[in-house]
Task: inverse folding
């Protein structure tokens, strides 16, 4: 296995941190010494990265500058929503029990070529890049994270959607043995979310497999989650096991519980309040500073055109 040592222009933003510099140096040393170590020994010493781990720092796509500093990794990875593991923000602890290999994801429904992908095969098949996106939770906090992944459109091209497909439905894993939250039986598990086929085809719709140049932490939805940076965070299904094309508008878990507060579209709009709080501003994870929330979370140039003519829809809740 070749160990890729990123060149200057390929360095992820996080490489500016001392930690990443140390890691890169370690990788370089490993590269030099790797021929001397039996592979088993290297692994036993915790030195050999997995194959997937070595793919997580592809070049950053510079087309989407976030305009704000990257959230410190520690803040973004210890303050999470993943109700399958509990309702508090500290679920990074119980989430470590999630087994992410082997992992299979089915892409099915109204497609010419339904397929079940092994996660490691999918990583080799898809054009990986990094995108530094803003993330806005409906609870009015936000972060900026360098995600590694590929465009959702590239995955859909593999299965060839039929013209009857109007929506994409995302289903998260539901593993009773490792997810204590599933015992809260009043939630209609599994976690479901969805979007239109036009939204799925948009250049911003991104399948995430890594963060901060590394494999996606389990609490962030390893090994595969989706990100629509112009929508509230609850639209971003984590730890996906099934992606289905359908002609029925999917009903999300939150919409099923409380449709008046969490709708299908959930596009970010500072002027449309949540029934219980204002969406005009947001608390920035890490600094704690409050900043104004932007229309479409600042991504109007790419997505506003998706919604012209949809005047009867509740686009912003
Ligand atoms: N399966 C699943 N996906 C989920 C959630 C969840 O509880 N379960 N929470 C959502 C919410 S409300 C947000 S804000 C984001 C949080 O992502 P993060 O933990 O990576 O910040 O994940 C979303 N995806
Ligand atoms: Mo959220």
Result:
């Amino acid at each position: 296995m070749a160990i890729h040592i990123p060149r200057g222009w390929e360095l992820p933003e996080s490489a500016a941190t001392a930690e990443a510099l140390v890691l890169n140096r370690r990788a370089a040393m490993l590269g030099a010494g790797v021929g001397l170590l039996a592979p088993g020994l290297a692994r036993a010493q915790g030195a050999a990265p997995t194959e997937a781990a070595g793919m997580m720092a592809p070049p950053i796509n510079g087309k989407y500058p976030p305009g704000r500093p990257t959230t410190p990794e520690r803040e973004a990875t210890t303050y999470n929503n993943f109700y399958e593991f509990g309702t508090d923000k500290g679920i990074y602890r119980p989430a470590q029990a999630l087994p992410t290999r082997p992992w299979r994801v089915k892409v099915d429904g109204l497609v010419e070529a339904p397929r079940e992908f092994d996660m490691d095969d999918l990583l080799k098949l898809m054009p990986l890049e990094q995108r530094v996106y803003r993330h806005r939770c409906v609870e009015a906090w936000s972060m900026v994270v360098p995600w590694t992944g590929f465009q959702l459109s590239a995955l859909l091209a593999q299965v060839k959607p039929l013209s009857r497909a109007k929506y994409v439905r995302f289903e998260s894993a539901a593993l009773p043995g490792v997810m204590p939250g599933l015992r809260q039986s009043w939630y209609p598990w599994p976690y479901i979310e969805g979007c239109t086929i036009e939204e799925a085809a948009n250049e911003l719709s991104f399948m995430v497999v890594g963060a901060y140049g590394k494999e996606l932490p389990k609490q962030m939805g390893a090994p595969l989650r989706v990100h629509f940076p112009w929508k509230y965070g609850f639209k971003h299904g984590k730890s996906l096991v099934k992606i289905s094309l359908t002609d029925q508008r999917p009903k999300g878990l939150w919409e099923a519980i409380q449709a008046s507060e969490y709708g299908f579209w959930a596009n970010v709009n500072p002027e449309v309040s949540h029934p219980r709080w204002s969406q005009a501003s947001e608390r920035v994870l890490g600094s704690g500073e409050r900043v104004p929330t932007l229309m479409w979370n600042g991504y109007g140039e790419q997505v506003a055109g998706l919604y012209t003519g949809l005047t009867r829809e509740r686009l912003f809740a």
